[in-house]
Amino acid sequence: MQRRDFIKSSLAGSAGLMTFSADSFLAEGDFPAERITDGSNPHWFGYYDKLQIDPTGRYALGMQAPFEGRTPGPDDQLEIGLIDLQNNNKWRKLGMSNAWGWQQGCMLQWLPNSAEEVIWNDRIDGAFRSRVLNVKTGKERILPKAIYALAPNGQFAVGTEFNRIQNLRPGYGYVGIPDPYEKVKAPKDIGIYRMDLKSGKHQMLLSLSDMAAIPHLGESVDTYWHWFNHLLISPDSKRMLFLNRWRHKVQEQDGVPTTEFITRMVTMDTDTGKDRYVIDPSGNTSHIIWDGPERILAWTKPIGKEWGFWLMEDKTQNSEHIGAEAMTVNGHNTYIPHTDNEWVLNDTYPDANRMQTLYLYNISTQRRVILGKFLSPPQYKGEYRCDLHPRANPQGKQVFFDSTHEKLGRQIYKVDIGKVVRG
After folding, report:
1. Is residue 162 part of a domain?
2. Residue 255: inside a domain, yes or no?
3. Half-sphere exposure of 162 (CA within 13 A, CB side)
4. What is the reported pLDDT for 258?
5. What distance in Å separates the CA atoms of residue 209 and residue 45, rounded to the nearest whole number?
6. Closest by alpha carbon to 235, among 342, 335, 323, 118?
7. How far apart, in whole angstroms, are the C-alpha atoms of residue 309 and residue 329?
8. Which pLDDT value is given to residue 252?
9. Does any domain span residue 188?
10. How many separate domains does the chain show?
11. Distance between CA atoms of 406 and 410, rounded to whole angstroms?
12. Which residues form the domain of 255?
């Protein structure tokens, strides 16, 4: 396979591999972080696997909220903005949204391969839909369903029901429209859908009922409360992955489910929803990113193995432990563009001192480069936490992230990495 032979030998057992050393760390001060939002209100972008920067590298997308520290209500609006990185980070309002949460915002992002159109979710006429806006002409069109992930070919999106997510995983879905199936454990009428980004035509690919009918490690799970999360389409747009999650029972405290959930990662064909494969049946899958069309890098604990970032081969149980000595805790992992997927961009959750680490890791050399450590004040926790969620620009020379370290509320920052990945 390209870049390196997958599973030719495990990293842990190969005698000739370089060992990780603290000497490969670069000082935090070598990478000054520049705030690109004005600090007047909370600003952020949200999730790590979306296109925040346009293809030219000039414009960044952002969101502005009038408050922090509570769940958005049905009437709380989010402002969508465009930041001109070459004109003093000037903010230009693009629109508003009534469908958003603190972790993933409103799924705001650029349409793949477009320097003009952006998309985000909104609540329109009593339904969750998506808006596509041409930032140059101002022309807007409404699509009938909300989007979760876009195909890299720019032709279609996949989605799931955000009121179902909010019902079972508050903070990742949207308020304003109750889950009509809140008393149904695995509904047959909702699930994962595919929608054409031009016509808006959509069809179901997989229902929650069909997924719940698939046993987990030989045991039935169709009597538990199911939902879908973290949909992501492969680089060739032919397959997608998603997390099927369920709770053994729903116990609520102040209206919020408190029971732990189980997770399995599944891949399937994006045209028909067929050719399904449970690539990680461990119950532990967390953050994920595609590594080419056939592999997935995920934080998990595969059955019989240790916690870590594992490079998994689709439709098999082959896996390779990546960064065993350098990427030892969960984070939001992506690849830096134009590095042949050698450089991983990652972060950490707050440590004992409430510091979040932003770093790069080179798979071939096992070099880890710390870009900075950023304070997360104690009030940023649970649903209201502000993860760094780092994103690279299309040129692979800058990293953008959300942070609260200046105590200005969440704001958007950038740091230059060209001297590392191009060095």
Report:
1. yes
2. yes
3. 30
4. 62
5. 33
6. 335
7. 9
8. 61
9. yes
10. 1
11. 9
12. 49-286
Handedness of CA 39, 45, 46, 49 (dihedral sign): negative
Q: Which residues of 385-423 are buried (b: 16+ CB within 10 A; e: fewer)?
A: bbbbbbbbbbebbbbbbbbbbeebbbbbbbbebeebbee
Query: 283: part of which helix (H) or strand (E)?
Result: none
Q: What is the pLDDT of residue 260?
A: 84
In a domain? residue 268: yes
Query: Rounded to two decimals, what is the model's pTM?
Result: 0.92
**In angstroms, rounded to a whole number, what is the distance separating the alpha carbons of residues 409 and 401?**
14
Q: What is the mean pLDDT of residues 72-87?
A: 97
C-alpha span between 194 and 201 (Å, rounded): 8
Contact 397, 367 (CB under 8 A): no
Return the structure tokens found at 104: 């993933």
Residue with tokens 């649970």: 382
pLDDT in tens, 263-287: 999 999 999 999 999 999 999 999 9
The SS3 assignment for 280 reads strand
Find the CATH number of the domain harbouring 151.
2.130.10
Amino acid at 157: A
- Compute the chain's Rg from CA coordinates: 21
- Residue whose entry in the numeric block shows the structure tokens 């979306």: 50
Tell me how far apart the alpha carbons of residues 129 and 122 are, in angstroms, rounded to a whole number. Answer: 6
Answer for the pair 26, 42: CB distance below 8 angstroms, yes or no.
no
